[in-house]
Amino acid sequence: MERLLEGKIAIVTGAAHGIGRGHAFELAKHGATVVVADLGSDVRGKGSGGDADEVAELITKRGGTAIADYADIADETQASALVERTVSEFGRLDVLVNNAGIVRDKVIWNMPVQDFDAVMRVHVRGTWLMTHLAAVEWRRRAKAGETFTGRVINTTSGAGLLGNFGQSNYATAKAAIVGLTLTTSLELYKLGVTVNAVGPGGMTRLTATSGKDLKAFEPDELPEGQYHPMDPAGSSPLVAWLASDEAQHVTGQVLRAIHDKIYLMRGWHEAATIGNAEEKWDATELGMRIATGLYGTRAPGLGA
């Protein structure tokens, strides 16, 4: 098997379980040294523990190189220490996979503000902070005259792209990650760094909270090479390829890996337009103009 990531140094956040765990194994299989970063909390972000140790140990037993780290990636001091440790121990950082996340689902009228804040803190602040710190390191290398490639691969979700009932916090966070991906892809490309987002599928601890009969499983519980439509590692080959030098031409993209299919997603774009001959709009006329000009019909909710 060709190893796409020989000698690469990667941080994978939220790597102790589920999707991140699958990413860590896949990157290591392709030759990357992996920093398995995971606070060890539950799906709601409560508690901490040494769950990352198991993944690092399994990678090592399989002949790879990995270390565990328990940083809270939304805490600036701890996130900085994680990046500094990676560079200190392995000489550099090549790949950052931002995967850490929690859920606290409730319909919006029942959702406490602290549940919104907690989800945003991990997904948005954590992803932004880790990207910021990696960018500072890559900018330092570029200013020193180095030529290199870097990779940021963020985790979005169908909830962020399409919406999902009961997840106003999670969907908002995952949509924000797409905006962060698009912006940082523009900012970092001249440094040789690409930034993309992947929307994975799979039965994980997070997705299992959406139904009482759903049970999470880890990707390494499946026999090697066996296909399962809900494999948490279903998107991991895509992540490994995006992390490789082969994918230097791909940046600012949103891709979904669901079951056996990979989808290229396209975001907001101009679908139709109406004009008013440089005159101020009249609100009383807008309903009809929008219905006929933008939708081509009397769309539901846009007039009788």
Provide structural commentary.
This protein is of the alpha/beta class and 304 residues long. It contains 8 helices and 8 strands. Strands 3-2-1-4-5-6-7-8 form an 8-stranded mixed beta sheet, with helices on both faces. β2 (33-37), α2 and β3 form a beta-alpha-beta unit. It folds into 2 domains: 9-265, 3-Layer(aba) Sandwich (Rossmann fold), CATH 3.40.50.720; 270-304, no CATH class. The chain has helices at residues 18-29, 51-61, 76-90, 113-143, 158-162, 168-188, 236-243, 283-294; strands spanning 9-13, 33-37, 66-69, 95-98, 150-155, 193-200, 254-258, 261-265.
Helices and strands in order, then pairings?
Blueprint: E1 9-13, H1 18-29, E2 33-37, H2 51-61, E3 66-69, H3 76-90, E4 95-98, H4 113-143, E5 150-155, H5 158-162, H6 168-188, E6 193-200, H7 236-243, E7 254-258, E8 261-265, H8 283-294
Parallel strand pairs: 1-2, 1-4, 2-3, 4-5, 5-6, 6-7
Antiparallel strand pairs: 7-8
Helix pairs in contact: 1-7, 3-4, 4-6
